[in-house]
Write a structure and sequence with these properties.
This protein is of the alpha+beta class. The chain has 15 helices and 22 strands. The chain is 30% helix and 18% strand. Strand 19 (478-481) and strand 20 (486-489) form a beta hairpin. The N and C termini lie far apart (53 Å).
Length: 588
Protein backbone atom coordinates (compact mmCIF):
# COMPACT_ATOMS: atom_id res chain seq x y z
CA UNK A 1 0.00 0.00 0.00
CA UNK A 2 1.48 3.33 -1.02
CA UNK A 3 2.16 5.76 1.77
CA UNK A 4 4.19 4.93 4.85
CA UNK A 5 2.22 3.01 7.44
CA UNK A 6 2.57 4.28 10.99
CA UNK A 7 4.57 1.98 13.23
CA UNK A 8 1.71 0.78 15.42
CA UNK A 9 3.04 -2.48 16.79
CA UNK A 10 1.53 -4.66 19.48
CA UNK A 11 4.17 -3.32 21.86
CA UNK A 12 3.34 0.32 21.10
CA UNK A 13 -0.37 -0.34 21.57
CA UNK A 14 0.39 -1.92 24.94
CA UNK A 15 2.47 1.11 25.87
CA UNK A 16 -0.52 3.28 24.99
CA UNK A 17 -2.79 1.14 27.13
CA UNK A 18 -0.39 1.37 30.07
CA UNK A 19 -0.17 5.12 29.62
CA UNK A 20 -3.96 5.34 29.61
CA UNK A 21 -4.06 3.36 32.84
CA UNK A 22 -1.48 5.63 34.40
CA UNK A 23 -3.50 8.64 33.32
CA UNK A 24 -6.64 7.18 34.88
CA UNK A 25 -4.74 6.54 38.10
CA UNK A 26 -3.46 10.11 38.09
CA UNK A 27 -7.00 11.35 37.66
CA UNK A 28 -8.09 9.22 40.58
CA UNK A 29 -5.25 10.48 42.76
CA UNK A 30 -5.89 14.09 41.84
CA UNK A 31 -9.65 14.10 42.26
CA UNK A 32 -10.88 16.07 45.22
CA UNK A 33 -12.19 13.76 47.93
CA UNK A 34 -15.77 14.50 49.00
CA UNK A 35 -16.16 16.18 52.34
CA UNK A 36 -17.65 14.31 55.29
CA UNK A 37 -20.87 16.25 54.83
CA UNK A 38 -21.22 14.93 51.29
CA UNK A 39 -20.38 11.39 52.45
CA UNK A 40 -23.50 11.18 54.58
CA UNK A 41 -25.15 7.78 54.91
CA UNK A 42 -27.10 6.70 51.88
CA UNK A 43 -25.32 9.05 49.48
CA UNK A 44 -22.35 6.96 48.32
CA UNK A 45 -22.74 5.88 44.70
CA UNK A 46 -20.49 3.57 42.71
CA UNK A 47 -20.78 4.13 38.97
CA UNK A 48 -19.54 1.08 37.07
CA UNK A 49 -18.29 2.09 33.64
CA UNK A 50 -16.84 5.33 32.25
CA UNK A 51 -18.48 5.68 28.85
CA UNK A 52 -21.04 8.35 28.06
CA UNK A 53 -23.65 6.67 30.28
CA UNK A 54 -21.28 6.47 33.25
CA UNK A 55 -19.96 10.01 32.87
CA UNK A 56 -23.52 11.34 32.54
CA UNK A 57 -24.68 9.52 35.67
CA UNK A 58 -21.65 10.75 37.62
CA UNK A 59 -22.25 14.31 36.41
CA UNK A 60 -25.92 14.39 37.37
CA UNK A 61 -25.32 12.76 40.76
CA UNK A 62 -22.35 14.95 41.67
CA UNK A 63 -24.31 18.11 40.86
CA UNK A 64 -26.91 16.88 43.35
CA UNK A 65 -24.44 16.37 46.18
CA UNK A 66 -23.84 12.62 46.02
CA UNK A 67 -20.43 11.10 46.68
CA UNK A 68 -19.54 9.42 43.40
CA UNK A 69 -16.74 7.00 42.58
CA UNK A 70 -16.50 5.89 38.96
CA UNK A 71 -14.77 2.64 37.97
CA UNK A 72 -13.52 2.25 34.38
CA UNK A 73 -11.36 -0.56 33.03
CA UNK A 74 -9.93 0.99 29.85
CA UNK A 75 -10.44 4.65 29.01
CA UNK A 76 -12.88 7.36 30.00
CA UNK A 77 -15.33 8.21 27.23
CA UNK A 78 -15.79 4.62 26.07
CA UNK A 79 -16.70 4.32 22.41
CA UNK A 80 -16.92 8.12 22.15
CA UNK A 81 -13.30 8.79 23.05
CA UNK A 82 -10.43 9.73 20.76
CA UNK A 83 -7.34 7.50 20.66
CA UNK A 84 -3.81 8.87 20.36
CA UNK A 85 -1.81 7.21 17.59
CA UNK A 86 1.37 6.01 19.35
CA UNK A 87 4.61 7.35 17.95
CA UNK A 88 2.98 9.58 15.35
CA UNK A 89 4.12 12.94 16.74
CA UNK A 90 7.41 14.24 15.35
CA UNK A 91 9.63 17.24 16.09
CA UNK A 92 7.60 18.28 19.10
CA UNK A 93 4.21 18.05 17.38
CA UNK A 94 1.30 16.34 19.17
CA UNK A 95 0.38 12.82 18.12
CA UNK A 96 -2.39 12.19 15.63
CA UNK A 97 -5.88 11.39 16.81
CA UNK A 98 -7.59 8.14 15.91
CA UNK A 99 -11.00 7.02 17.11
CA UNK A 100 -13.37 4.10 17.51
CA UNK A 101 -15.44 5.71 14.77
CA UNK A 102 -16.50 9.20 13.76
CA UNK A 103 -19.48 10.59 15.59
CA UNK A 104 -22.07 13.19 14.82
CA UNK A 105 -24.67 15.04 16.85
CA UNK A 106 -28.04 15.30 15.08
CA UNK A 107 -30.12 18.32 15.89
CA UNK A 108 -32.78 16.14 17.49
CA UNK A 109 -30.28 15.06 20.15
CA UNK A 110 -31.27 16.96 23.30
CA UNK A 111 -29.66 15.16 26.25
CA UNK A 112 -26.03 15.29 25.08
CA UNK A 113 -26.23 19.01 24.14
CA UNK A 114 -27.86 19.81 27.49
CA UNK A 115 -24.91 18.19 29.27
CA UNK A 116 -22.42 19.93 26.97
CA UNK A 117 -23.74 23.32 28.01
CA UNK A 118 -22.79 22.45 31.60
CA UNK A 119 -19.17 21.60 30.77
CA UNK A 120 -17.03 24.77 30.94
CA UNK A 121 -14.66 25.41 28.05
CA UNK A 122 -12.30 28.38 27.88
CA UNK A 123 -13.60 31.10 25.59
CA UNK A 124 -17.00 29.46 25.05
CA UNK A 125 -20.10 31.13 26.47
CA UNK A 126 -22.04 27.87 26.19
CA UNK A 127 -19.27 25.53 27.26
CA UNK A 128 -18.45 22.48 25.15
CA UNK A 129 -21.71 22.97 23.22
CA UNK A 130 -20.07 25.83 21.33
CA UNK A 131 -17.62 23.31 19.86
CA UNK A 132 -20.38 21.83 17.68
CA UNK A 133 -20.35 22.90 14.03
CA UNK A 134 -22.86 22.14 11.29
CA UNK A 135 -22.28 19.93 8.26
CA UNK A 136 -24.01 21.41 5.23
CA UNK A 137 -24.52 18.35 2.99
CA UNK A 138 -24.49 14.58 2.72
CA UNK A 139 -23.22 12.63 -0.28
CA UNK A 140 -24.52 9.28 -1.47
CA UNK A 141 -21.74 7.83 -3.59
CA UNK A 142 -22.49 5.11 -6.16
CA UNK A 143 -20.25 2.99 -8.35
CA UNK A 144 -20.50 3.74 -12.05
CA UNK A 145 -23.12 6.45 -11.80
CA UNK A 146 -23.45 10.04 -10.69
CA UNK A 147 -23.38 10.63 -6.95
CA UNK A 148 -26.19 12.38 -5.12
CA UNK A 149 -25.41 15.36 -2.90
CA UNK A 150 -28.23 16.50 -0.63
CA UNK A 151 -28.11 19.82 1.27
CA UNK A 152 -28.61 19.50 5.01
CA UNK A 153 -30.94 22.00 6.56
CA UNK A 154 -34.53 22.99 6.93
CA UNK A 155 -36.77 21.93 4.08
CA UNK A 156 -39.24 24.19 2.30
CA UNK A 157 -42.80 24.78 3.35
CA UNK A 158 -44.05 22.37 6.02
CA UNK A 159 -46.87 19.97 5.34
CA UNK A 160 -50.19 20.34 7.15
CA UNK A 161 -52.09 17.09 6.46
CA UNK A 162 -51.45 13.48 5.33
CA UNK A 163 -51.76 14.24 1.61
CA UNK A 164 -49.35 17.15 1.94
CA UNK A 165 -46.99 14.93 3.92
CA UNK A 166 -46.86 12.34 1.16
CA UNK A 167 -46.37 14.93 -1.55
CA UNK A 168 -43.69 16.90 0.32
CA UNK A 169 -41.61 13.92 1.41
CA UNK A 170 -42.07 12.12 -1.92
CA UNK A 171 -41.05 15.20 -3.87
CA UNK A 172 -37.98 15.73 -1.68
CA UNK A 173 -36.84 12.14 -2.30
CA UNK A 174 -37.49 12.34 -6.04
CA UNK A 175 -35.65 15.62 -6.56
CA UNK A 176 -32.64 14.67 -4.41
CA UNK A 177 -32.09 11.11 -5.67
CA UNK A 178 -32.39 9.08 -8.87
CA UNK A 179 -35.54 7.45 -7.60
CA UNK A 180 -38.76 7.37 -9.57
CA UNK A 181 -41.87 9.16 -8.39
CA UNK A 182 -43.76 5.93 -7.72
CA UNK A 183 -41.11 4.59 -5.37
CA UNK A 184 -40.67 7.94 -3.64
CA UNK A 185 -44.40 8.34 -2.98
CA UNK A 186 -44.64 4.74 -1.81
CA UNK A 187 -41.87 5.31 0.73
CA UNK A 188 -43.46 8.59 1.83
CA UNK A 189 -46.66 6.69 2.53
CA UNK A 190 -44.81 4.06 4.56
CA UNK A 191 -43.31 6.87 6.61
CA UNK A 192 -46.79 8.37 7.00
CA UNK A 193 -48.11 5.02 8.26
CA UNK A 194 -45.43 4.94 10.93
CA UNK A 195 -45.83 8.60 11.90
CA UNK A 196 -49.59 8.13 12.39
CA UNK A 197 -49.18 4.91 14.37
CA UNK A 198 -49.94 4.99 18.09
CA UNK A 199 -47.37 3.89 20.65
CA UNK A 200 -49.09 0.55 21.16
CA UNK A 201 -48.75 -0.24 17.45
CA UNK A 202 -45.14 0.95 17.30
CA UNK A 203 -44.24 -1.25 20.26
CA UNK A 204 -46.56 -4.17 19.65
CA UNK A 205 -46.48 -4.43 15.85
CA UNK A 206 -43.71 -2.46 14.19
CA UNK A 207 -40.98 -3.44 16.64
CA UNK A 208 -41.38 -7.03 15.49
CA UNK A 209 -41.19 -6.25 11.75
CA UNK A 210 -37.82 -6.00 9.96
CA UNK A 211 -37.38 -2.71 8.11
CA UNK A 212 -36.94 -4.39 4.72
CA UNK A 213 -40.30 -6.11 5.09
CA UNK A 214 -41.99 -2.96 6.32
CA UNK A 215 -40.95 -0.92 3.30
CA UNK A 216 -41.52 -3.81 0.88
CA UNK A 217 -38.01 -3.43 -0.52
CA UNK A 218 -38.19 -6.74 -2.39
CA UNK A 219 -40.82 -5.34 -4.74
CA UNK A 220 -39.24 -1.95 -5.37
CA UNK A 221 -36.45 -0.66 -7.63
CA UNK A 222 -32.78 -1.29 -6.99
CA UNK A 223 -32.35 2.41 -6.15
CA UNK A 224 -35.08 2.10 -3.52
CA UNK A 225 -33.55 -1.05 -2.03
CA UNK A 226 -30.06 0.42 -1.86
CA UNK A 227 -30.92 3.87 -0.49
CA UNK A 228 -34.05 3.52 1.60
CA UNK A 229 -33.62 -0.02 2.85
CA UNK A 230 -29.94 -1.07 2.99
CA UNK A 231 -28.07 2.23 3.35
CA UNK A 232 -30.58 3.78 5.73
CA UNK A 233 -30.26 0.93 8.22
CA UNK A 234 -26.48 0.61 8.09
CA UNK A 235 -26.10 4.36 8.53
CA UNK A 236 -28.25 4.37 11.65
CA UNK A 237 -27.78 1.07 13.44
CA UNK A 238 -25.07 -0.91 11.59
CA UNK A 239 -27.69 -3.60 11.01
CA UNK A 240 -28.88 -5.41 7.94
CA UNK A 241 -32.25 -4.20 6.73
CA UNK A 242 -33.73 -7.69 7.13
CA UNK A 243 -32.86 -7.61 10.86
CA UNK A 244 -33.36 -3.99 11.99
CA UNK A 245 -36.51 -3.12 13.93
CA UNK A 246 -39.01 -0.94 12.07
CA UNK A 247 -39.74 0.82 15.35
CA UNK A 248 -36.15 2.01 15.59
CA UNK A 249 -35.68 2.99 11.94
CA UNK A 250 -39.13 4.58 11.85
CA UNK A 251 -38.37 6.71 14.89
CA UNK A 252 -35.24 8.03 13.20
CA UNK A 253 -37.09 8.63 9.93
CA UNK A 254 -39.64 10.63 11.88
CA UNK A 255 -36.85 12.95 13.02
CA UNK A 256 -34.92 13.22 9.74
CA UNK A 257 -37.79 13.32 7.23
CA UNK A 258 -40.93 13.94 9.26
CA UNK A 259 -39.77 17.21 10.79
CA UNK A 260 -39.05 19.50 7.80
CA UNK A 261 -38.65 22.66 9.88
CA UNK A 262 -36.52 20.89 12.52
CA UNK A 263 -39.08 21.93 15.11
CA UNK A 264 -37.84 21.41 18.64
CA UNK A 265 -34.31 20.59 17.49
CA UNK A 266 -31.33 21.68 19.55
CA UNK A 267 -29.61 22.89 16.38
CA UNK A 268 -28.91 22.01 12.74
CA UNK A 269 -29.75 18.48 11.68
CA UNK A 270 -26.13 17.32 11.28
CA UNK A 271 -23.34 18.55 13.57
CA UNK A 272 -19.78 17.55 14.39
CA UNK A 273 -17.15 18.67 16.86
CA UNK A 274 -14.57 21.24 15.81
CA UNK A 275 -11.67 19.16 17.08
CA UNK A 276 -10.69 15.75 18.37
CA UNK A 277 -13.39 14.40 20.68
CA UNK A 278 -11.17 14.19 23.75
CA UNK A 279 -9.91 17.74 23.37
CA UNK A 280 -13.27 19.25 22.45
CA UNK A 281 -15.49 17.28 24.83
CA UNK A 282 -14.30 14.30 26.90
CA UNK A 283 -11.27 15.79 28.68
CA UNK A 284 -13.10 19.01 29.66
CA UNK A 285 -15.96 16.80 30.90
CA UNK A 286 -13.67 14.72 33.09
CA UNK A 287 -12.09 17.90 34.46
CA UNK A 288 -15.54 19.23 35.34
CA UNK A 289 -16.42 16.01 37.16
CA UNK A 290 -13.17 16.22 39.13
CA UNK A 291 -14.16 19.75 40.18
CA UNK A 292 -17.49 18.34 41.37
CA UNK A 293 -15.67 15.79 43.53
CA UNK A 294 -16.01 12.65 41.43
CA UNK A 295 -13.28 10.06 42.10
CA UNK A 296 -12.02 7.99 39.17
CA UNK A 297 -10.59 4.49 39.65
CA UNK A 298 -8.95 2.44 36.90
CA UNK A 299 -10.44 -1.00 37.60
CA UNK A 300 -12.36 -3.85 36.01
CA UNK A 301 -15.69 -5.03 37.43
CA UNK A 302 -15.64 -8.78 38.08
CA UNK A 303 -18.91 -9.37 39.91
CA UNK A 304 -21.68 -8.12 42.17
CA UNK A 305 -22.43 -9.35 45.67
CA UNK A 306 -25.99 -9.62 46.92
CA UNK A 307 -27.38 -9.20 50.42
CA UNK A 308 -31.09 -9.85 50.39
CA UNK A 309 -32.67 -7.46 47.89
CA UNK A 310 -29.66 -5.14 47.76
CA UNK A 311 -26.27 -5.12 46.11
CA UNK A 312 -23.78 -5.09 48.97
CA UNK A 313 -20.61 -4.74 46.95
CA UNK A 314 -18.86 -4.90 43.60
CA UNK A 315 -15.79 -7.06 43.13
CA UNK A 316 -13.12 -5.19 41.16
CA UNK A 317 -9.53 -5.70 40.10
CA UNK A 318 -7.49 -2.50 39.88
CA UNK A 319 -4.71 -1.62 37.45
CA UNK A 320 -2.11 -3.26 39.69
CA UNK A 321 -3.99 -6.54 39.71
CA UNK A 322 -5.19 -6.16 43.29
CA UNK A 323 -8.70 -7.43 43.98
CA UNK A 324 -11.09 -5.73 46.35
CA UNK A 325 -14.77 -5.41 47.09
CA UNK A 326 -16.21 -1.94 46.63
CA UNK A 327 -18.96 -0.91 49.01
CA UNK A 328 -21.52 1.78 48.29
CA UNK A 329 -25.12 2.64 49.08
CA UNK A 330 -26.12 2.59 45.42
CA UNK A 331 -24.66 1.03 42.28
CA UNK A 332 -25.18 2.38 38.76
CA UNK A 333 -24.24 -0.19 36.15
CA UNK A 334 -23.15 1.83 33.12
CA UNK A 335 -21.45 -1.11 31.43
CA UNK A 336 -22.06 -2.20 27.83
CA UNK A 337 -24.77 -4.83 27.43
CA UNK A 338 -22.35 -7.67 26.68
CA UNK A 339 -20.42 -6.88 29.89
CA UNK A 340 -23.40 -6.12 32.14
CA UNK A 341 -25.30 -9.31 31.33
CA UNK A 342 -22.31 -11.41 32.38
CA UNK A 343 -22.74 -10.05 35.93
CA UNK A 344 -26.29 -11.32 36.42
CA UNK A 345 -26.05 -14.27 38.77
CA UNK A 346 -28.98 -16.67 39.33
CA UNK A 347 -29.65 -14.83 42.58
CA UNK A 348 -29.83 -11.45 40.82
CA UNK A 349 -32.04 -12.91 38.08
CA UNK A 350 -34.39 -14.31 40.70
CA UNK A 351 -35.01 -10.73 41.84
CA UNK A 352 -35.09 -9.20 38.35
CA UNK A 353 -36.02 -12.06 36.00
CA UNK A 354 -36.54 -9.65 33.10
CA UNK A 355 -32.77 -9.13 32.95
CA UNK A 356 -32.45 -12.63 31.50
CA UNK A 357 -33.74 -11.21 28.21
CA UNK A 358 -30.49 -9.27 27.85
CA UNK A 359 -28.73 -12.51 26.91
CA UNK A 360 -30.76 -12.54 23.69
CA UNK A 361 -29.88 -9.00 22.65
CA UNK A 362 -27.69 -8.81 19.56
CA UNK A 363 -24.38 -7.00 19.28
CA UNK A 364 -22.40 -6.55 16.09
CA UNK A 365 -19.47 -4.52 14.86
CA UNK A 366 -19.27 -0.93 13.72
CA UNK A 367 -15.71 0.34 14.01
CA UNK A 368 -13.55 2.93 12.33
CA UNK A 369 -10.33 3.39 10.43
CA UNK A 370 -8.67 6.74 9.76
CA UNK A 371 -6.70 7.52 6.60
CA UNK A 372 -4.25 10.39 7.05
CA UNK A 373 -3.71 12.32 3.82
CA UNK A 374 -1.03 14.62 2.47
CA UNK A 375 -3.60 16.70 0.60
CA UNK A 376 -6.94 18.20 1.61
CA UNK A 377 -9.91 16.26 0.28
CA UNK A 378 -12.97 17.81 -1.34
CA UNK A 379 -15.39 14.89 -1.24
CA UNK A 380 -18.29 16.52 0.62
CA UNK A 381 -19.01 19.19 3.20
CA UNK A 382 -20.41 16.50 5.45
CA UNK A 383 -20.91 12.76 5.63
CA UNK A 384 -20.59 10.36 2.70
CA UNK A 385 -22.39 7.03 2.37
CA UNK A 386 -20.81 4.55 -0.07
CA UNK A 387 -24.05 2.95 -1.19
CA UNK A 388 -22.66 -0.05 -3.09
CA UNK A 389 -19.72 -0.83 -0.81
CA UNK A 390 -19.66 -4.43 0.46
CA UNK A 391 -18.64 -3.25 3.91
CA UNK A 392 -21.30 -0.47 4.09
CA UNK A 393 -18.78 2.32 4.47
CA UNK A 394 -19.48 5.88 5.57
CA UNK A 395 -16.95 8.68 6.03
CA UNK A 396 -16.27 12.25 7.06
CA UNK A 397 -13.30 14.41 6.06
CA UNK A 398 -12.36 15.96 9.38
CA UNK A 399 -9.90 18.66 8.34
CA UNK A 400 -12.63 21.03 7.16
CA UNK A 401 -14.29 20.98 10.60
CA UNK A 402 -11.31 20.87 12.94
CA UNK A 403 -10.55 24.55 13.40
CA UNK A 404 -9.77 24.08 17.10
CA UNK A 405 -7.15 21.36 16.73
CA UNK A 406 -6.18 21.43 13.05
CA UNK A 407 -4.94 18.18 11.56
CA UNK A 408 -2.11 20.13 9.96
CA UNK A 409 -0.49 20.74 13.35
CA UNK A 410 -0.31 17.07 14.27
CA UNK A 411 1.98 14.17 13.42
CA UNK A 412 5.06 14.84 11.28
CA UNK A 413 3.76 18.07 9.74
CA UNK A 414 2.98 16.64 6.30
CA UNK A 415 -0.62 15.62 6.98
CA UNK A 416 -3.31 17.92 5.61
CA UNK A 417 -6.48 15.92 6.25
CA UNK A 418 -7.98 12.86 7.90
CA UNK A 419 -10.65 10.78 6.19
CA UNK A 420 -12.39 8.97 9.03
CA UNK A 421 -14.28 5.90 7.83
CA UNK A 422 -16.79 3.69 9.63
CA UNK A 423 -17.04 0.04 8.62
CA UNK A 424 -20.60 -1.08 9.36
CA UNK A 425 -20.62 -4.54 7.78
CA UNK A 426 -17.87 -6.87 9.02
CA UNK A 427 -19.54 -10.04 7.74
CA UNK A 428 -19.77 -9.56 3.94
CA UNK A 429 -16.81 -10.52 1.70
CA UNK A 430 -14.88 -7.58 0.25
CA UNK A 431 -13.83 -6.90 -3.32
CA UNK A 432 -10.04 -7.40 -3.03
CA UNK A 433 -9.57 -10.48 -0.87
CA UNK A 434 -13.02 -12.05 -0.94
CA UNK A 435 -13.10 -12.11 2.85
CA UNK A 436 -15.25 -10.33 5.43
CA UNK A 437 -13.49 -7.71 7.52
CA UNK A 438 -13.59 -10.00 10.56
CA UNK A 439 -11.25 -12.40 8.71
CA UNK A 440 -8.88 -9.79 7.27
CA UNK A 441 -5.59 -8.77 8.83
CA UNK A 442 -5.33 -5.11 9.74
CA UNK A 443 -3.26 -4.42 6.63
CA UNK A 444 -5.91 -6.15 4.50
CA UNK A 445 -8.67 -4.13 6.16
CA UNK A 446 -6.86 -0.90 5.27
CA UNK A 447 -6.24 -1.95 1.66
CA UNK A 448 -9.78 -3.27 1.20
CA UNK A 449 -11.43 -0.18 2.69
CA UNK A 450 -9.26 2.12 0.56
CA UNK A 451 -10.17 0.13 -2.56
CA UNK A 452 -13.90 0.33 -1.82
CA UNK A 453 -13.64 4.08 -1.31
CA UNK A 454 -11.78 4.49 -4.58
CA UNK A 455 -14.30 2.37 -6.49
CA UNK A 456 -16.97 4.90 -5.51
CA UNK A 457 -15.07 8.17 -5.64
CA UNK A 458 -12.71 7.67 -8.57
CA UNK A 459 -15.11 6.34 -11.19
CA UNK A 460 -15.78 9.87 -12.52
CA UNK A 461 -12.41 11.45 -11.86
CA UNK A 462 -9.84 11.01 -9.12
CA UNK A 463 -10.97 12.27 -5.71
CA UNK A 464 -8.69 9.95 -3.74
CA UNK A 465 -5.09 9.59 -4.86
CA UNK A 466 -2.84 6.79 -3.70
CA UNK A 467 0.04 9.29 -3.63
CA UNK A 468 -1.82 11.34 -1.04
CA UNK A 469 -2.11 8.49 1.45
CA UNK A 470 0.31 9.01 4.33
CA UNK A 471 -0.78 6.31 6.79
CA UNK A 472 -3.76 4.76 8.48
CA UNK A 473 -4.96 3.87 11.97
CA UNK A 474 -7.45 1.15 12.89
CA UNK A 475 -9.57 1.28 16.04
CA UNK A 476 -7.52 -0.39 18.79
CA UNK A 477 -10.58 -2.34 19.90
CA UNK A 478 -10.04 -4.52 16.81
CA UNK A 479 -7.40 -7.15 17.63
CA UNK A 480 -6.05 -9.82 15.28
CA UNK A 481 -6.07 -13.36 16.70
CA UNK A 482 -3.40 -15.16 14.68
CA UNK A 483 -4.37 -18.60 16.02
CA UNK A 484 -7.99 -18.20 14.89
CA UNK A 485 -7.12 -16.11 11.82
CA UNK A 486 -9.81 -13.59 12.59
CA UNK A 487 -10.32 -10.41 14.58
CA UNK A 488 -11.88 -9.83 17.95
CA UNK A 489 -13.67 -6.62 18.93
CA UNK A 490 -13.59 -5.13 22.42
CA UNK A 491 -16.34 -2.62 21.57
CA UNK A 492 -19.28 -4.23 19.78
CA UNK A 493 -22.47 -2.24 19.25
CA UNK A 494 -26.00 -3.09 20.31
CA UNK A 495 -28.22 -3.77 17.31
CA UNK A 496 -31.91 -2.93 17.57
CA UNK A 497 -33.17 -6.08 15.89
CA UNK A 498 -36.83 -6.78 15.21
CA UNK A 499 -38.54 -7.92 18.39
CA UNK A 500 -35.77 -6.78 20.72
CA UNK A 501 -37.75 -4.14 22.62
CA UNK A 502 -39.28 -6.74 24.93
CA UNK A 503 -35.78 -7.96 25.84
CA UNK A 504 -34.54 -4.55 26.96
CA UNK A 505 -34.94 -3.65 30.65
CA UNK A 506 -35.94 -0.47 32.39
CA UNK A 507 -33.36 1.32 34.50
CA UNK A 508 -34.68 0.14 37.88
CA UNK A 509 -37.00 -2.29 39.59
CA UNK A 510 -38.05 -2.18 43.25
CA UNK A 511 -37.24 -5.87 43.62
CA UNK A 512 -33.51 -5.04 43.45
CA UNK A 513 -33.45 -1.90 45.49
CA UNK A 514 -30.09 -0.22 44.92
CA UNK A 515 -29.05 -1.28 41.39
CA UNK A 516 -29.72 1.10 38.51
CA UNK A 517 -29.00 0.44 34.85
CA UNK A 518 -27.63 2.99 32.40
CA UNK A 519 -26.58 2.21 28.84
CA UNK A 520 -27.81 2.33 25.28
CA UNK A 521 -29.55 -1.05 25.72
CA UNK A 522 -31.91 0.33 28.41
CA UNK A 523 -35.36 1.38 27.17
CA UNK A 524 -35.32 5.04 26.18
CA UNK A 525 -37.28 7.47 24.06
CA UNK A 526 -34.53 7.78 21.46
CA UNK A 527 -34.48 3.97 21.12
CA UNK A 528 -31.13 3.77 19.37
CA UNK A 529 -27.67 2.55 20.39
CA UNK A 530 -26.12 6.00 20.49
CA UNK A 531 -24.49 8.49 22.83
CA UNK A 532 -27.90 10.11 23.13
CA UNK A 533 -29.50 6.87 24.27
CA UNK A 534 -26.71 6.35 26.79
CA UNK A 535 -27.20 9.87 28.17
CA UNK A 536 -30.98 9.53 28.38
CA UNK A 537 -30.75 6.18 30.16
CA UNK A 538 -28.30 7.60 32.70
CA UNK A 539 -30.68 10.45 33.48
CA UNK A 540 -33.51 7.95 33.96
CA UNK A 541 -31.31 5.92 36.32
CA UNK A 542 -30.42 8.99 38.37
CA UNK A 543 -34.08 10.05 38.58
CA UNK A 544 -34.99 6.60 39.94
CA UNK A 545 -32.17 6.85 42.48
CA UNK A 546 -33.46 10.23 43.60
CA UNK A 547 -36.92 8.73 43.96
CA UNK A 548 -35.70 5.74 45.96
CA UNK A 549 -33.68 7.93 48.33
CA UNK A 550 -36.50 10.41 48.78
CA UNK A 551 -34.25 13.21 47.59
CA UNK A 552 -35.77 16.64 47.03
CA UNK A 553 -33.08 17.50 44.46
CA UNK A 554 -34.40 18.55 41.05
CA UNK A 555 -34.86 15.67 38.64
CA UNK A 556 -32.74 15.33 35.52
CA UNK A 557 -34.46 16.70 32.48
CA UNK A 558 -35.59 13.99 30.06
CA UNK A 559 -36.57 14.94 26.52
CA UNK A 560 -38.93 13.22 24.12
CA UNK A 561 -38.62 12.94 20.36
CA UNK A 562 -40.56 15.27 18.11
CA UNK A 563 -43.91 14.17 16.75
CA UNK A 564 -45.80 16.31 14.29
CA UNK A 565 -48.84 17.77 16.06
CA UNK A 566 -50.71 17.82 12.74
CA UNK A 567 -50.78 14.02 12.82
CA UNK A 568 -51.77 13.62 16.47
CA UNK A 569 -55.52 13.17 15.68
CA UNK A 570 -54.63 10.23 13.44
CA UNK A 571 -52.46 8.69 16.16
CA UNK A 572 -55.38 8.97 18.56
CA UNK A 573 -57.65 7.23 16.06
CA UNK A 574 -55.03 4.53 15.64
CA UNK A 575 -55.27 3.59 19.34
CA UNK A 576 -58.75 2.15 18.83
CA UNK A 577 -57.86 0.62 15.46
CA UNK A 578 -54.87 -1.23 16.90
CA UNK A 579 -56.85 -2.44 19.91
CA UNK A 580 -59.49 -3.78 17.50
CA UNK A 581 -56.90 -5.60 15.40
CA UNK A 582 -57.32 -3.25 12.45
CA UNK A 583 -54.42 -1.84 10.36
CA UNK A 584 -53.37 1.77 10.41
CA UNK A 585 -55.81 3.77 8.29
CA UNK A 586 -53.08 4.69 5.76
CA UNK A 587 -51.63 1.18 5.60
CA UNK A 588 -52.82 0.23 2.13
Amino acid sequence: MAGQRLSVTRRSVLRGAIAAGAMAGAVAAGAARPTSARAAAGRRVAVLGGGVAGLTAAHELAERGFEVTLYERRALGGKARSILVPGSGKDGRPELWGEHGFRFFPGFYRHIPDTMRRIPFAGNANGVWDNLVAASEVRFSRKGTDDTIIPMGKAGKPWSNPDSFRETVGSAITTSTNMGTSDALYFANRLLVFNTSCDARRNGQWDGVPWRDYVGAGKRSNEFRMLLSRTLTTLLVAAKDDKASTRTIGNMGEQFLGNPLETGNDGPLDRLLNGATNEAWIDPWVNRLRELGVTFVNAEIRGLELDGARISGARVVDSSGAAQTVEADHFVSALPVEVARALWTPEILSLRPELAGMSQLTVDWMSGIQFFLRRRTDIARGHVAYVDSPWSLTSIAQGQFWNRTPVTGLGDGSIQDCLSVDISDWNTPGMLYGKPAKECTHEEIARETWAQLGAHLNDRGELLSQDDLHSWFLDTGIAWDASQKRNTNADPLLINTAGSLALRPYSHADSLQNLYLAGDYVRTNVDLATMEGASESARAAVNKLLEVTGSDAPRCQVFTLYRAPELEPFRQLDIARFAAGQPNMFDA
